[in-house]
Amino acid sequence: SAAEKGGYDYFMLKEIAEQPKAVADTLLGRIDAAGSLTLDEVRIGAAELRELDKVVIVACGTAFHAGLIAKYAIEHWTRLPCEVELASEFRYRDPILDPRSLVVAISQSGETMDTLMALRHAREQGSKVLAICNTNGSTIPRESDAVLYTHAGPEVAVASTKAFLTQLVACYLVALYLGQVRGTKWGDEIRAVIRDLSRISGAVERVLETMEPVRALARSLAGKKTVLFLGRHVGYPVALEGALKLKELAYMHAEGFAAGELKHGPIALIEEDLPVVVVVPSPRGRSVLHDKIVSNIQEIRARGARTIVIAEEGDDAVVPYADHLIRIPVTPTLLQPLVSTVPLQVFACELATARGNEVDQPRNLAKSVTVE
Ligand code: AGP
Description:
The chain is built from 14 helices and 10 strands. The chain is an alpha/beta fold. Helix 4 runs parallel beside helix 8. The mean pLDDT is 95. 2-deoxy-2-amino glucitol-6-phosphate binds next to helix 4.
């Protein structure tokens, strides 16, 4: 009913709008007054966490994209090797697991059969399983050793939005917590990022306030057949997520690429007026990445692409090559997906509407996939 949708036309729009609160709620009570993480729910003892020799993340769809981003954070802050695998592929290749592997299963619903089977396989090998889940008491957390709940509230739209942002928050918390417990040379950075994270919901709010031009752009592209998405570093999984949203909602051909792979094949797809969305890493910090992507944008534009550039406020280097420029707030490099994903959600939702599609219930899809 209209009331359930809180005045929005679709649950998806309501859920996109709820993201600042969902992010804040997922952080609530998990950062103490001294600025350290207190994740009591992670009932795996500090000694055991110190003994770990790798982290393995299993998930499907959008949750898998959260896992891909988590890998950058976990490896950076903990120096533990981290693998990320589609849950549906995982157990069939006889993965190497033992009691020193921490398996993280990410699932909004907690009922995804592929993810459940992957975690059962991991437990049979003696690994500890930590679930990141949005649904209290669902099967995946019940069968895991510990659970870190995302506090997104119920997500009704089939296309995941607020659950994804809160999965990212939970993944950052796990990465920072492992770093905190295990002690790495990044202690100061970890404390600074915990501080940044505690303020990030305001940045998500600011992005939402500036989405009208993104909606207008989406409407103008309703007749297109293909949209490509490019990113580097944590922007690469964001590109994959932008493409998945477009497939699910707009039923358009969409693909995400690592920008550095362009010249190894995908650049052959570029043709006159093809819309290409590029997620630009921060010019601060890992500035090499930024400079490389700016030349990627130049290259595709020279070949006729219509460039839609998502870049930080104040990043002037992209301006000459952007046919459309979408600004996002300045954020620490690893946290950028929390703000760069939002315009892609709005873009896909508006394109779906413009094409007359059912936003909350895309064809052929179910909210939770309980078969393998
Ligand atoms: C997201 O927009 C999708 N509908 C889908 O990819 C989803 O993320 C996937 O099926 C995993 O679901 P889960 O998080 O409930 O396990």
